[in-house]
């Protein structure tokens, strides 16, 4: 396994820069589908860290050595370390790729307990989840106002998003505080449905992000 050097600029493919708050550094992606997957990882509390295109592996096909670089390596609190390949479903369905990933799955199973996982848009784009996370991501790095921190114990257990905004205004909190609360999972809601003023929110008392 050889570490792969990822060029910041490529004549063949323009790489997408994604700033990872979880890793406190930039990660490079080759597609918007990969960016969406990283966004999901940013909001998964059990994911410790991850890196894109971490290393190249050599595998044997018909007596010839081929090189393969997985899209992701992920360090998880409970699942340990595992690799992911992110591809559109129609590409994974080709006979060539079916044979390729059958060989790779067996090869990775020998070096990792969790092996190589294949992830498609079906696992990533579930309803409005990605659209909601894009809206929340910036606020995840912000800090609640001192006023909001002082009155957090008064937050209702269940409220609408519109009601949370009104609650923040009545308690002289900062205008960003409602979004910061959502971004840091102090309130949860159905991410598959687009956030709206009437979205029902449930207080998450186990959140440790703030």
TrEMBL record:
TnsA endonuclease N-terminal domain segment(s): 45-121
Annotated keywords: Endonuclease, Hydrolase, Nuclease
Keyword Nuclease among UniProt keywords: yes
Pfam families in UniProt: Tn7_TnsA-like_N
GO molecular function: endonuclease activity
Classification via InterPro entries: TnsA_N (IPR014833)
Protein name (Swiss-Prot/TrEMBL): TnsA endonuclease
Organism: Shewanella baltica (strain OS195)
């Amino acid at each position: 396994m050889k570490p792969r050097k990822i060029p910041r600029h490529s004549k063949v493919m323009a790489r997408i820069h994604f700033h990872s708050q979880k890793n406190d550094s930039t990660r490079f992606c080759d597609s918007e589908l990969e960016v969406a997957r990283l966004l999901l990882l940013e909001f998964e509390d059990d994911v410790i860290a991850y890196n894109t295109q971490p290393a190249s592996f050599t595998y044997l096909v018909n007596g010839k050595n081929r090189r393969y670089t997985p899209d992701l390596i992920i360090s998880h609190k409970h699942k340990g370390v595992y690799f992911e390949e992110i591809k559109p479903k129609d590409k994974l369905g080709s006979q060539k790729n079916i044979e390729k990933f059958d060989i790779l799955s067996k090869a990775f199973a020998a070096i990792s307990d969790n092996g190589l996982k294949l992830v498609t848009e079906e696992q990533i784009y579930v309803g409005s989840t990605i659209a909601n996370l894009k809206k929340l991501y910036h606020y995840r790095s912000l800090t609640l106002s001192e006023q909001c921190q002082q009155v957090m114990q008064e937050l209702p257990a269940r409220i609408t998003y519109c009601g949370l905004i009104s609650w923040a205004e009545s308690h002289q909190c900062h205008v960003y505080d409602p979004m910061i609360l959502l971004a840091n999972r102090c309130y949860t809601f159905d991410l598959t449905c687009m956030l709206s003023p009437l979205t029902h929110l449930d207080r998450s008392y186990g959140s440790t992000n703030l």
